[in-house]
């Protein structure tokens, strides 16, 4: 404690005066946060300068056997937040309405807030960030994106003097587990989803994960930070993985790729030199040599490309009680230090106010699988369907013969609108018997 | 500028009052810092809240054609640092004595310091950090370790509530380039070093890189942050790569490994439950499936293992003007925000004061290649040499016959002292004709 006493000597704050913490929610993450607060109290005190004291834990139902002293539990979250001896509120309830109300009332009372709530931040970032600014209160949310992986802080702080051009991430463990398993076993989506549920990697209602809502919320947060622009979940183009087939994975493997659900945040510079941003979530082919291709199972990874820094990658456990609690605790220590020493963490930065480019305007590459009649002129006809819509073809491969004849077309970068029009036109061609797979291709140069 | 005006309205500081910056040094990094300060002035102002104004650049020789207005240049670095209108000093000169003096005088005048100087920090961290504390001044040094890769901030802040057990990194681009090239071409160290020099990946005097001094300085900084303990370069056990042979690389390949110069910072818990830390730099075998094995060329990567977070990896460009400048600029924006809004970045944390374990006490695994006489009893004799020193063998492989007979021994984890005694004893055995390669093995579980 020499260190903290030494600090105390030139601070205005009394280091014996503890910093009060309220934890809202006692699920996987809340339980770990409470455990660390209790087990590591001495270390935390030394790192903050003053003791962190847990004032209470808001739960839906007070019951014995929650592994914490019963007197800490309360069902009255609002009263806990309002207590005079609570300086910092840790919100790990999940959901929208209740945490929104509690966070706003904490911030309006000048208390610091640490939250892991990506859905709330992606929908109400403006309201919450403004409440933090207005009250000069700290709002930290490292745990909201990619669990233990530090990516919020690097984007907000380490890259604060650089220009971020692209953020591409695997930010949802459930879908990555399913796609990794499909690639490995060759099984179908439905079968793999069931297996993922059985193993605890997918929730009873997996919609938020498999339809990309969770990834879209994280993409909105990442894009807001990367581009100094307020981006909400509604701004994110979103497709889930429920339509990905075993054939898609087989196709991917055949062309040296794999399929990943990507969260993509890109700066798109228009021909007139003006910047817009494109934020989207969808399953896409990426080459096996891409750094994200080897991120398997429930792991997360995020690639950030910035003008001066070049390409950075962050990798680790994107979910789970302990990893998420690690991120919460880092934020909590920083918020507590600010309470103790004075000062504030960086607030929202939205000055750039870049417009969102619609998905149709977004340049992507496509990989299209067609079953075709095996006769002369088919390739020329297919090529014309692309050319007519201004889509340049990178490679065409003919496979099989007779009934099994196929064309595999990979395009250069074109707008998503031109590409989807092309695919619609192909389906109408009399010698195209089926468009069996259409996948975007990301992570390549052209 | 709406954002900054809005902020101004509830701050005490006048946002029209610029924040003065002095840049010391105009090498690769300094040149990029100055370029970004000039090219991105509007963005930087919006992010800080006030304009950043470059007051001057200290250089050894003022001359035309440095790409910056000549009136900004000065050879009097001390006078530049002392100017009343300089709030933040960016030190990118390199070296020890001059930057030390300049940084101390800046901190003693209450100015914020951003530095990329790993050698200085690893030798004088105590003196400099204490000056920062005493004067309540900011000291930022993200650029000192692994260039653009955010690792200082994640260790200091994101993991502030967790317990870090291990940091393993490839933190020197020159040696990684050489080892990658040796693995790829099969060429010898000397030949590859020459090629690296020719390509600009090694300096005219490559000692600091190839003998591991640069990596050791970074290891000291990483260990200090990870373990809340002051660690200097002198505490780091250090071996360079100049003795790594083409045969070592071939051996590595044959056993599914590669050779990397690793910076290792580990918490070692003794049998009595007390923690010590081991900080070391040496070339070691790592399995090809280890995340660091695929980090090639001039790239850097750092793996951090923490109790709650699990294993995290950070990857990117570890050197070069622009990537290092990205890290400097992030620190500069944070330091400037603190000047503008009040508050301070986190200071040094050394409360844990863990003792340094000597290399002899450090548990490692060895991979030993022996040329032996081809006769009965040799394997038993060699095995006895290990067993007598308490070193448990994991695998032994016999290769070749007659003149070319070899034994390849891989040990379990044992103290480095016991292992080196064993190797010394092996060399004395009459039927061991040569100990051709002794390499530590890292990144495995046992």
UniProtKB/TrEMBL annotation, chains A, B:
Pfam families: ACT, Homoserine_dh, NAD_binding_3. SUPFAM superfamilies: ACT-like (SSF55021), Glyceraldehyde-3-phosphate dehydrogenase-like, C-terminal domain (SSF55347), NAD(P)-binding Rossmann-fold domains (SSF51735). Keywords: Amino-acid biosynthesis, Methionine biosynthesis, NADP, Oxidoreductase, Sodium, Threonine biosynthesis. NADP(+) binds at residues 24-31. InterPro entries: ACT-like_dom_sf, ACT_dom, Asp/hSer_DH_NAD-bd, HDH, HDH_cat, HDH_CS, NAD(P)-bd_dom_sf. NADPH binds at residue 118. It is an enzyme of class 1 (oxidoreductase). L-homoserine binds at residue 203. It catalyses: L-homoserine + NAD(+) = L-aspartate 4-semialdehyde + NADH + H(+); L-homoserine + NADP(+) = L-aspartate 4-semialdehyde + NADPH + H(+). One of its GO terms (biological process) is methionine biosynthetic process. Belongs to the homoserine dehydrogenase family. NCBIfam families: PRK06349.1. Catalyzes the conversion of L-aspartate-beta-semialdehyde (L-Asa) to L-homoserine (L-Hse), the third step in the biosynthesis of threonine and methionine from aspartate. This is Homoserine dehydrogenase.
């Amino acid at each position: 404690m020499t260190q903290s006493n030494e600090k105390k000597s030139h601070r205005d704050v009394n280091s014996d005066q503890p910093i009060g913490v309220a934890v809202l929610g006692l699920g996987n993450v809340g339980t770990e946060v409470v455990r660390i607060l209790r087990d590591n109290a001495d270390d935390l005190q030394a790192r903050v300068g003053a003791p962190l004291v847990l004032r209470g834990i808001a739960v839906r139902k007070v019951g014995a056997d929650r592994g914490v002293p019963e007197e800490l539990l309360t069902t009255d979250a609002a009263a806990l937040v309002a207590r005079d001896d609570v300086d910092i509120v840790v919100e790990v309830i999940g959901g929208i309405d209740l945490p929104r109300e509690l966070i706003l009332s904490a911030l309006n009372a000048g208390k610091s807030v640490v939250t892991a709530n990506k859905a709330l931040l992606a929908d109400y970032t403006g309201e919450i960030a403004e409440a933090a600014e207005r009250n000069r209160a700290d709002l930290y949310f490292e745990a909201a994106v990619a669990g233990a992986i530090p990516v919020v802080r690097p984007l907000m702080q380490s890259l604060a003097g650089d220009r971020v051009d692209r953020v591409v991430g695997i930010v949802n463990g459930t879908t990555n587990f399913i796609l990794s398993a499909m690639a490995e076993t060759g099984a179908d989506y439905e079968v793999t989803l069931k297996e993922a549920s059985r193993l605890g990697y997918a929730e009873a209602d997996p919609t938020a994960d498999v339809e990309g809502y969770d990834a879209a919320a994280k993409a909105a947060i990442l894009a807001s930070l990367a581009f100094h622009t307020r981006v909400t979940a509604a701004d994110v183009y979103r497709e889930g993985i429920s339509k990905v087939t075993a054939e898609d994975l087989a196709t991917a493997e055949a062309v040296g790729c794999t399929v990943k659900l990507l969260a993509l945040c890109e700066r798109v510079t228009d021909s007139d030199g003006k910047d817009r941003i494109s934020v989207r979530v969808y399953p896409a082919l990426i080459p096996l040599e891409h750094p994200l291709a080897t991120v398997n199972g429930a792991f997360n990874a995020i690639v950030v490309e910035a003008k001066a820094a070049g390409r950075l990658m962050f990798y680790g456990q994107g979910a789970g009680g302990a990893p998420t609690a690690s991120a919460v605790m880092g934020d909590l220590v920083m918020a507590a230090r600010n309470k103790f020493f004075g000062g504030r963490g960086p607030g929202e930065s939205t000055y750039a106010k870049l417009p969102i480019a619609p998905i149709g305007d977004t340049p992507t590459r496509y990989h299209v699988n067609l079953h075709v009649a095996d006769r002369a002129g088919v390739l020329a006809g297919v090529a014309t369907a692309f050319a007519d819509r201004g889509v340049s073809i990178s490679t065409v491969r003919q496979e099989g013969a007779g009934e099994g004849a196929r064309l595999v077309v990979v395009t250069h970068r074109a707008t998503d609108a031109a590409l989807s029009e092309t695919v619609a036109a192909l389906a109408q061609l009399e010698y195209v018997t089926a468009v069996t797979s259409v996948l975007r291709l990301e992570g390549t140069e052209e």
